[in-house]
Amino acid sequence: MTESILSVAGLSRFFRVGGFRSRGILHATDEVTFEVGAGEIVALVGESGSGKSTIARVLAGLYPPSAGSITFEGQPIGRRSSRRVRGRMPMVFQDPFGSINPVLRVGHSLERSLKLHRSDLNASARHEEAISLVERVGLTPGAEVLRRFPHELSGGQRQRLGFAQALASRPSLILADEPVSMLDVSIRIGLLNVMKDLRDREGVSLLYITHDLASARYVADRMIVLYAGRIVEEGLTEEVISSPQHPYTRLLMSTAPDPRLPLSDDASVTDLGEPPKVINPGPGCRFAPRCPLAMDQCRASTPAPVSLSPTQRVACYAVTA
Amino acid sequence: MSDLLSVRDLRVDYETPAGPARAVNGVSFDLARGEFLAIVGESGCGKSTMLFAIAQLLAYPASQVGGTVIFDGVDLTTLTPEELRRHRWRDFSVVMQSAMNALNPTMSIGAQLADVCRAHTDWDDAHIAQRCAEVLAMVSIDPAHLKSYPFQLSGGMRQRAMIAMALLLEPKLVIMDEPTSALDVVAQRSLMRQVQTLREQLGFSVLFVTHDMSVVSHFSDRLAVMYAGEVMELGSTRAVFDSPQHPYSHGLMDAFPSLLGAPRALTGIAGNPPSLVNPPEGCLFAPRCTQVMDDCRTLHPELIDDDGRSVRCHLIHPVVRR
Amino acid sequence: MKALVVIARALRRAGAFLRRDKKAAAGSIILFILLVIAIFPTWFTPYDPTAETFTPGVGLSWSHLLGTTSFGQDVFSQLIAGTRQSVFIALIVGFFSTVISVIVGVSAAYIGGWLDDLLSMLTDVVLVIPTFPLIIVITAYLKNASFWLMVGVLVFTGWSYGARQLRVQALSLRNRDYLLAAKARGESSWYVIVVELLPPMTSLIVANFLGAALYAVLAASGLQFVGLGNINTESWGTMLYWAQNNEALATGLPLWALAPGIAIAVLGSALALLNYAFDEVANPALRPVTRRRAKVAA
Lengths: 321, 322, 298
What we know:
The complex is a heterotrimer of chains A (321), B (322) and C (298). Chain A has 321 residues and is α/β, with parallel strands linked by helices.
């Protein structure tokens, strides 16, 4: 097992919702435990309500966790993560149009990042480094790109910029929150290849958050499947794709739009894809209401992830029975 | 039986400070009765604009500057607003992209459905109530939700409510503008299946616009690929998927990572779509085409039909020189 | 050096903007002229405005462009002299009012929580107080209010409307990803507010400034008209006061009353024109629509 960069244990984040009368607790993520090693891409796969974005934001220091611990590069991260940690674990956002300040030039935030995290560089060295960063993600000519305003760049170019921004602070792990979801299909591959490059050439790990199984398969070494704030399955990418264990993973696989997959008689004939209940959820497995294998035990208590092999874990009574 | 919809040489311009941008550049196609035609293309290719032009819903700064839209024998572009109104919803209806934005958040679902009925028919209240409950049941929504407000329904349910609204008067054509883009995978699949079942029951045609072709791959009869305001390829869905002829279609098909088979490296399509205000001479895809030839840069290719498969490409239909 | 480049660029952009928009151009020209008059009144006054040495009751004439008052003062000179107070009060009140609005509105939106609740309540209370009666009460109590006192009163009653608007806009911008991105890369809250949040709000802040300035002109003139300003200073409002008290309209000296009134209207219009222009900058949907009938080819 490679050296662990990020170790998350029992991470939970709750939100209070509702007004004075209908008080509820929203379990955005619940007891999530996983690790990311050096030089690997781990995909967090889930649909709306799975908690994947919440996990990213907690890791990025935008919310404190409600419970659980986060250990980064061997050190625990407290309620307020330090600037050093922010530099070593930066985030790339989903929306290429909203994640860059429209009134400032593109080079501005890049140079700010360098100023905050690379105190070893003086002003001219910073500028040189900024040019090098944008060229490393495929934006050339670097000097010219830095002078532009965001509206002069396309969506794909802006997302590349997001990765350049993340690279500026010499990170060991980049949190990528659905970086390609809002891009055109023909542009996505370019960005996914940038991510693979970062892992191969620069040795950076990535936590890739997505709802798209196919793109997760394309870039990730390992996959973690989330449902209603909990981990339901985890394993090497090819393991999970070729032999999904959890009924939810199987559902995702069969309904994932892929023109080369024949249209089988999948669960979507009866399953309407309604989102799970994450506000004041009951004691049982959160997938039970939709699960074809649900047993009494499933409704009584929530299954914890159980190791099926050194690399594979599943949280399902029906499978581990 | 004649075609339900015949679009000929449709052109739409957008007013911009830099001059008119040709968003739809001479699109022509036919839609048979009961047929499902998917229009696929990336952002900015003009597919939504074309849809709005067909439905006669264009508003400033877009305007139709050429072409005809013949629906069931009537040229919609020549009708007055009053005449158009008689056709709306009875003959063709529209399902918008984001149900969240298309549904009035301050009115119950039932009230909005009833509103549509009252605007286009002279049914009495009892009939309206019955019909509204009927359409909701058709899309697997409990009719009790007639009293619910949009925010009380999930995204998938809201989108299905939109489809129910579109089917109130049993139109011959339902136009759908990316109805699945805001939905999760399972809900998406379920919605497409629902549309298919309803088509089998009611026999309407569907014109479906999307940027994600894998969503329609199992449901559409024919597929049109649009780029920079033009149809680049048109043919039966299976044929276009299995053997795309136009380099752009080919590049697009290839840009989808797959869950099947061995993992392999993909490259996508380099470059960006052309300016619609100052389009390049010749083929609009030439600047990005990996198989570009000399003719491509100077001669604009026509959409040439070959036994049901149309392609706009000099590679497939080389320029004939005598 | 860099500051000069930035200023030069801003001026060039401003120039281009003014050339494009007739309303903005008209407003800025008028304002500019009034500003020059306000700063250098002696360039324009033919006579000493307070001198009561002329023939009273003279109408339009070559020696007295707007006639004289019933005390024998030259109306035109008074008008010119009065420009300073009115224009300065507009700009100064506008400035301080906007500064407070920005601080209150943006802090409430950005920091949120109890501070937001407190500041919002404060804003709402001040907003709801009927301003004119309040101003009258305060200035009547303080008798012959000096310039700075009037500024204080007007700022106190004028900041709340802008604070509300700016708070709403800051709230809508607050959850934009680029602010989260700034926080995520380790910037301090101060930096995020000043460099990332405020610049996109510039149009609204400027619009607020112009609105506050307009409010100040009208309120100040109103106060002076009812005699609550310092009636011994030269200003358009006090001219109205004296004209009214001496029944200018009835005694055949209409210009004495009309001139300051029109001047107030001109300043107000200049500010309003600039305000409309900035509204259009901030909200493209308000820009004038140029419809051209497209010919549908057969």
